[in-house]
Amino acid sequence: MPNTRSAAKQARKSLRKKGYNLKAKKELQQVSRQMREKVASGTREEVAGFFSQYQSVLDRLVKRGRLTRNAAARRKQRVAKSVFASPSSGEEEAKQG
Questions:
Q1: How far apart are CA 6 and CA 15, in angstroms?
Q2: How many CB atoms lie within 10 A of CB 39?
Q3: What is the mean pLDDT of residues 71-85?
Q4: Rounded CA gap, 50 and 40, in Å?
Q5: Residue 10 confidence (pLDDT) above 90
Q6: Which of 27, 50, 25, 28 shows the shortest CA–CA distance to 40?
């Protein structure tokens, strides 16, 4: 139990922030899972379309202060590598040969 009025207010603020952070974390987990599923089984165009939605969610979380700018950039970069990676050289040679 808080001993002062300011401590009580801080406790209320802390609970409110915890709720916001949990909601943001859940949203990020959902969109990340969807992105992984699309990369694993979707067509390149479908994945590229969803990638813009993924970026939008990350940018929104950064704007609201729920995620740092560098963390969002790192996540975008890692996903972009898998989304826009060129096919392996063995597949290209097989198509050309």
A1: 14
A2: 17
A3: 91
A4: 13
A5: yes
A6: 50
- What value does the mean pLDDT of the chain take? 87
- Cα-based distances in Å from 38 to 24, 31, 53, 78: 21, 10, 12, 15
From the number of C-beta atoms within 10 Å of its C-beta (0-12, 13-18, 19+), residue 34 rates as: middle
Q: Give the tokens for residue 53.
A: 């939605």
80 in Cβ contact with 51 (< 8 Å): yes
Three-state secondary structure string covering the chain: CCCCHHHHHHHHHHHHHHHHHHHHHHHHHHHHHHHHHHHHHCCHHHHHHHHHHHHHHHHHHHHCCCCCHHHHHHHHHHHHHHHCCCCCHHHHHHHHC
